[in-house]
Every structure is written in structure tokens, then in C-alpha cells.
Amino acid sequence: MEIGSTARAHGVRLLALDEVDSTNSEARRLIEGGEWGPLWVVAARQTKGRGRMDREWLSPAGNLHASFIISDFGETLVAPQLGFVAGVAAMRALVSAAGRGRFGLKWPNDLMLDGAKLGGILLENVIVPTGDARAPASSVAIIGIGVNCANSPDDLPYEARALAALGAEAPSAATVFAHLSDALVETLEIWRGGAGFAQLREEWLTYASGLGADIRVALARETVEGRFETIDSSGRLVLATSDGARVVEAGDVLLGPRPIAAGIAR
Ligand code: BTN
User: Fold this and answer.
1) How far apart are CA 79 and CA 28, in angstroms?
2) What is the tens place of the pLDDT at every residue in 220-236?
3) Full-model pTM
4) N or C: which end of the chain has fewer CB within 10 A?
5) How far apart are CA 215 and CA 101, in angstroms?
6) Residue 82 and residue 15: Cα distance in Å, rounded?
7) Atom 11 of ligand 1 has which residue's CA nearest to it?
8) pLDDT tens for residues 199-209?
9) Angle at CA 196, nearest 5°, toward 213 and 98?
10) Do residues 56 and 81 make contact, with C-beta atoms less than 8 angstroms apart?
11) Which residues line ligand 1 (CB under 6 A)?
12) Are the C-beta atoms of residues 14 and 38 closer than 8 Å to each other?
């Protein structure tokens, strides 16, 4: 596993491991031990890979499991935008590594290939004491990215796919990572701590799965339906429902037809 040349030139470092519980958990331990980044933690295998909402993330050898530590990115308030910064970077990386493919982004943080889940982003934040009385705490972000390169699980309540489906030309995890590390430097430069979010939002929307279509969004206690209009200037999903516009902060977008029997849509 090697970092891309642009990332290296920008002082980004790499910690490559054979096996770890979770690269996000390892990144957190490193931050608690004084690491500020920019550093990628990559592992060939994870024994306790984590997805959003405390879900398990299956992490066999051959797939990409990578977490980026970044500090000094601006206000803690803008940290959630990093999911979009990383999503656009992942799209740029996949398109340049695979040369073709039908890649997309499913709000908020899913990477898609041909309408099936290819990977995901898990954003976490660690508050670290600075020792400075004027600004006693600082926020360090962890951007965890998993891409199914060689394998995808087949027992999930949704369809998953791996890059291997692209055939002989499918890029390896190492190739995807080299492109990703460079692409993230590029998108972070566009983002500039939030100042360039509008431009990234436009690019994100060019990859958005289900944009303009009727979708369902599973929230904590209900599922809402409506037309996926856009994402707003803070990255929230905007739906046109029969009761008017609805802005959604957190949830899971469900694409495809509504299930006939209750209980099978997850
Ligand atoms: C999701 O779609 O739910 C997010 C999946 C994120 C998985 C990656 S793999 C690298 C990093 N380490 C983890 O434990 N999770 C993220």
C-alpha cells in the first residue's frame, strides 16, 4: 500500500497494518496519544470494522479499509461536511482508478456501483485538549472509508457489489487507495474548511443516486417518502413530500420500489 504522490508532497503520512480491529478505532487511539494528522491508517483486514449507526462492516482481505486523521480544518461545526468532501474524493478516485464504471453517491455517505452499495464513509470526531487556556479544546476528525474491492457481502438487507464486478480491469485496493489519497488532498483544498463547500456540493450532486426521483428515507422512528430535490447548503437532504418540503438531517435513503410486505425494507 502506498500513498499517492500528491498526498506525499503535501506531507500526508501512512500507517499500513496487516490487521486491526477497526482503522477508525486505531485512528482514535492514535489521536488520544497525541497524533494530529494528516495521517492515513490502512489495514488489510479489520476484525471489528464499523459502519454507520453501529452496524458491522465486513472487512476481508482484498478490500480497502482506510481512515484519515485531519485537524486544523476549521470550525467543529463544519466537520459533518467532511463526509461530502470524502465522497467526492472517492468518486474522483474510483473514476480515475477504474477508468469506467457507473459510480454514484447515495446520501449521506454511501459509495455505489451500478445501484448497489460499493462502500461507505464513517465520519467521527475526537475532542482533544490543547493545553491553551484561550482555546482549551480542538476537534480532530477521522474520515473512515471502506471500499469493497475484491469481495462484497451477500447476506445484507440491501444489494452490495465489489469492484471485482468490473472484470479483469478492476483496480486493487492499493490502486484505489493511491488515487483516493491524492483525490482527498484535492477536494480538501477546494473545501478550505467550508469556504468552498458550495463547489463540492455541486460536484457531489453530479454523482447523487436517486436525484429527482421518488425515494424513501428511513429515519429513526418513521420512513418518509418524497422526491429527492437536492442537498442544501449544509448537506441536508431536501425532499418534496405531499405535505411540502421536508429537510432531513440523518437517515438512510432507500432506493427502488417500495416493498410489498412490511418489514423487509431496511
Ligand atoms: C457505512 O457505510 O456504514 C460506513 C462504512 C465505513 C467502513 C470503513 S472501513 C475503514 C473504517 N474503519 C471502520 O471500522 N469503518 C470505516
Assistant:
1) 16
2) 889 999 999 999 998 99
3) 0.94
4) C
5) 23
6) 21
7) 144
8) 999 999 999 99
9) 60
10) no
11) 22-24, 46, 49-52, 55, 57, 65-67, 110, 120-122, 144-146
12) no
